[in-house]
Write a structure and sequence with these properties.
Helix content: 40-55%
Largest sheet: 3 strands, parallel
Shape: globular
Number of strands: 3
Radius of gyration: 12 Å
Distance between the termini: 15 Å
Strand content: 25-35%
Length: about 80
C-alpha cells in the first residue's frame, strides 16, 4: 500500500481535482495533507471533500504554523 503526500499552499483551483485523483487510486492507503499556511480556501475545500468521502483511504491533515515552503511541506509529510 502507498501513502501520498499532498503539500497545500494556495491551490484552491486544483485541490479538489487532486483529491479525486488520489481517491481513485487502487493502492493508496493514506493521504497526508500538509497545510503550509495556505491563505485561500484550499483547506475548506479539503475538509468538505473529506467529510463527503466514503472510501477506504485515510486522510490526515498536518498544519505548519508558519509557511516553510514546498520542500519542507514534503519533508513533513514524508516524516509522518
Amino acid at each position: 500500500m502507498i501513502s501520498v503526500v499532498v503539500p497545500v499552499y494556495n491551490v484552491a483551483p486544483y485541490i479538489t481535482r487532486c483529491l479525486r485523483s488520489v481517491a481513485a487510486q487502487a493502492y493508496v492507503s493514506e493521504c497526508i495533507i500538509v497545510n503550509d499556511c495556505s491563505t485561500d480556501n484550499s483547506m475548506s475545500l479539503i475538509l468538505d471533500f473529506i467529510s463527503k468521502y466514503e472510501g477506504s483511504i485515510r486522510f490526515h491533515i498536518i498544519d505548519h504554523n508558519i509557511n516553510r515552503g514546498l520542500s519542507a511541506a514534503r519533508n513533513t509529510g514524508t516524516r509522518a
